[in-house]
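ok here's General stress protein, seq below lol
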Amino acid sequence: MSTKNLTNEDAKKKIKELAEGIDFTMMATNLKQQPFHVVPMSTKEVDDAGNIWFLSNKNSEHNKNIERENRTQLIYADKGNFEFLSVYGRATISTDRNRIKELYGSGDDAWFDGVDDPNITAIKIQPDDAHYWDTKNGKVISLLKMAKGAITGNEPDLGEHGDLKV
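and the structure came out like this:
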């Protein structure tokens, strides 16, 4: 894999591409304690500033953890396409009803009593540090390239990875 570090707009685009494309992440909070608290979350949006948004219940354990200590780690993995993203950042909780309505989708009815549920909050993760691994051709082609590399002794071009500085 080649290293391609991205900054500013390119970094924001890569975070958006991977986070929204993969969708589900494991969100770790309470990072000062072991084990940390980890829950699956669905990405609602990556905004123009590179912030990653989620909806959450105000009474959830991760909301309580964020209120105590805002450091958060997100781990995205799409094993089918060999795409991965790790984001370390600062979380903030918002109760802005307009923002919640912008993020809310019909699938969220499984978790909330409609868009006006008083327990809905929006969580914004502002990335401080991020790293990605992105193959160019997905899992099958990557495995074929690895096999070819093993036979020929040539290092296969499997894609790229790098730091993302927003």
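fwiw The helical segments are 8-22, 61-68, 97-103, 138-152. kinda neat tbh
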